[in-house]
């Protein structure tokens, strides 16, 4: 899944799903649009980091607190509003 932003009127932007052409979000301040458009890629990166930590526990080392932050971010992204 890849999202892109399309600026619209009044300093707003539509977030467009490149695979479906649907708009999962409207951003009311263009400054936030790049972050929202990057959300699927950021979630994917977080999930990949957890897989690396699971496959190579020694890679975790001093980053155990970071793993918890990543897991919390994944949880929020997948369960927000449910």
Question: What is the number of strand segments?
Answer: 3
Hey, roughly how much beta strand do the residues contain? 15-25%
Structural category: alpha+beta
Number of helices: 3
Helix content: 40-55%
Tell me the strand order in the biggest sheet: 1-2-3
Taken from the alpha-carbon principal axes, the silhouette is: elongated
Uncertain segments: none
The SSE string, one letter per element, is EEEHHH
> Could you report the average pLDDT, rounded to the nearest whole number?
88
Number of domains: 1
Whole-angstrom Rg: 16 Å
How would you describe this protein?
The protein is of the alpha+beta class and 82 residues long. The protein has one domain (3-79). 52% of the residues lie in helices and 16% in strands. It contains three helices and three strands. The protein has helices at 33-55, 57-60, 64-79; strands spanning 3-7, 13-17, 25-27. Strands 1-2-3 form a three-stranded antiparallel β-sheet, covered by helices on one side. Helix 1 (33-55) packs across helix 3 (64-79). It is elongated.
What's this, in brief?
The chain is of the alpha+beta class. It has helices spanning 33-55, 57-60, 64-79, and strands at 3-7, 13-17, 25-27.
Keywords:
82 residues, alpha+beta, three-stranded antiparallel beta sheet, 3 helices
Outline the secondary-structure elements.
Elements: E1 3-7, E2 13-17, E3 25-27, H1 33-55, H2 57-60, H3 64-79
Antiparallel strand pairs: 1-2, 2-3
Helix pairs in contact: 1-3
């Amino acid at each position: 899944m890849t999202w892109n932003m399309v600026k619209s009127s009044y300093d707003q932007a539509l977030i467009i799903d490149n695979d479906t052409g649907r708009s999962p979000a409207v951003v009311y301040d263009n400054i936030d649009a790049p972050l929202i458009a990057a959300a699927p890629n950021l979630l994917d990166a977080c999930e990949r980091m957890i897989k690396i930590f699971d496959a190579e526990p020694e890679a975790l080392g001093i980053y155990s607190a970071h793993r918890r932050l990543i897991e919390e971010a994944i949880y929020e992204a997948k369960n927000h509003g449910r």
